[in-house]
Design brief:
By secondary structure, the chain is an alpha/beta fold. It is 40% helix and 12% strand. It has 16 helices and 11 strands. The structure holds glutamine.
């Protein structure tokens, strides 16, 4: 069975007749079938996607196919796809079917991408390991005793284990980048508002972004080219047009290495060593590396959790046993319907966050927590923008260490700290990508994170490709 390293290679292979879309889909389905113990998909649309593949083969022969013909996608289970179930890996959405398709996904479908299934994630995208899914955790294909990261863990393993070519995830505070780092894939969190959120089940609306998990930076660019842009169904989606074809190489880039993170006491020694070699390689390649401070490292996690739980407490109020999915059998009036359905339908972590968010928004505590957190977010944003005015890129590890074992983070705060390095870009709303860095020998995958200024994704992706090539012989 052959798998391809880029969309370009897939399309060339289809053009020269060495593979058909149908054969590709069959190969992915076989991978899914033979690795079921990884618990990657909540649902596989096998018959549907096979039929679509046959039709697409005809369309391609007629020379009428779109830009993404041959791209087989997996979607995180918080992205709506009309006529298909969507559950955010929660019991509370049991049996619910999407009434419409998310704009970002629709744009990919319009260019002939095919969807193979929906992937497991932490419930309502709250988590960093998929252990908060109501349907059991996903396992990392590099080591099934370890987590794949989260919350988009199913999407990351789908790409890692060749169950599809590209997957969509969503990133609020690291949910694309951290699983990408743990699975040796590329994961891009786009600039906030660059991709429409219409049809993405909301967690924290001022943070959430849909983004691609891929095997290369070039594939992420192609997906973004199709997916981004204004949307009349999402008033917050930016009108900024970005030219992904004009991705010029940044020669002699100025790069800020974040001292506080690379020398963080919790940083894995191998990861630190890779960054020090990377520094040398970057300088040899004609770039400038300077070590900068990020004085907010210890504040970003609490800051993020005050703001996102506040938003979540509001966003998740719609799941009340009335309009969607699950209703408790103990319901006998309005109050019991709401209380029982929510108590039974939401998992522990989701309930914790709703309560925390309700607390920080409550009269008497609003100013002390929520309003103050908004001010801290502004400081982080201003500091990040200032750094990005002086440097082309900020670089830091994606995570403090490679994939951890199941059960290693029982304490919720320890789990929250897993995303410590992902928070800066999320709070500032700027794009960030996790690039796979080759580990030594059989060690677990590692990720380097690159941050750049708002709407500079083409430049970011071009540089990510350079870093990836450089990182292949760091050992
Ligand atoms: N792990 C973080 C959280 O639990 C990030 C999740 C995300 O980006 N959706 O909130």
């Amino acid at each position: 069975m052959q798998f391809y390293s880029s969309i370009q290679h897939i399309q060339e292979a289809i053009q020269n007749g060495s593979v058909s879309v149908e054969q590709l889909v069959k190969n992915y389905l076989q991978q899914i079938e033979s690795q079921q113990e990884l618990n990657v998909f909540l649902e596989v649309f096998a018959d549907e996607v096979l039929e679509q593949a046959q039709q697409l083969d005809q369309k391609m022969k007629a020379g009428k196919a779109g830009k993404l013909a041959g791209v087989v996608l997996a979607i995180k289970d918080n992205i709506c796809y009309k006529g298909h179930r969507v559950s955010a890996s929660s019991k509370i959405l049991g049996g619910f079917e999407s009434l419409y398709t998310a704009t970002a996904l629709q744009r990919l479908l319009d260019e002939d991408a095919l969807v193979i299934g929906r992937t497991n994630c932490d419930e309502f995208a709250m988590g960093a390991s998929t252990e908060n899914s109501a349907f059991g955790p996903t396992k990392n294909a590099a080591d099934p005793n370890r987590v794949p990261g989260g919350s988009s863990g199913g999407s990351a393993v789908a790409v890692q284990a060749n169950m599809c070519h590209v997957a969509l995830g969503s990133d609020t505070g690291g949910s694309i980048r951290q699983p990408a780092a743990f699975t040796g894939t590329f994961g891009l969190r786009p600039t906030y508002a660059h991709v429409s959120r219409y049809g993405l089940i909301a967690y924290a609306s001022s943070f959430d972004q849909i983004g691609p998990i891929t095997k290369s930076a070039a594939d992420a660019a192609l997906i973004m080219e199709v997916m981004h842009g204004a949307d009349e169904l999402d008033a917050t989606a930016s009108r900024t047009q970005v030219d992904y074809k004009a991705a010029v190489e940044t020669k002699a880039a100025k790069i800020a290495f974040v001292k506080d993170c690379i020398f963080h006491e919790r940083l894995d020694p191998e990861l630190k060593a890779r960054f020090l070699v990377l520094e040398k390689k970057l300088i040899e390649a004609g770039h400038t590396v300077e070590w900068v401070d990020f004085p907010y490292t210890e504040y970003v996690v609490p800051n993020y959790y005050v703001l996102t739980t506040a938003e979540a407490s509001s966003n998740l109020s719609r799941f009340a046993g009335m309009l969607y999915g699950y209703r408790s059998e103990q319901s006998h009036d309005i109050e019991s319907t709401i209380v029982k359905s929510r108590s039974e339908g939401f998992g522990e972590e989701v309930q914790r966050r709703i309560m925390l968010g309700t607390f920080v928004l409550s009269a008497g505590y609003y100013d002390a927590y929520y309003a103050k957190a908004q001010k801290v977010r502004r400081l982080v944003k201003d500091y990040t923008y200032k750094t990005l005015a002086a440097y082309d890129f900020i670089m830091l590890p994606t995570t403090p260490h490679p994939a951890f074992e199941f059960g290693a983070n029982q304490d919720p705060i320890a789990m929250y700290l897993e995303d410590i390095f992902c928070m800066q870009a999320s709070l500032a709303g700027v794009p960030a990508i996790s690039v796979p860095i080759q580990p030594s020998g059989k060690n677990l995958p590692l990720g380097a994170q690159i941050i750049s200024s708002a709407f500079s994704e083409p430049k970011l992706l071009r540089f990510a490709d350079e870093i990836h090539k450089m990182s292949e012989n760091l050992v």
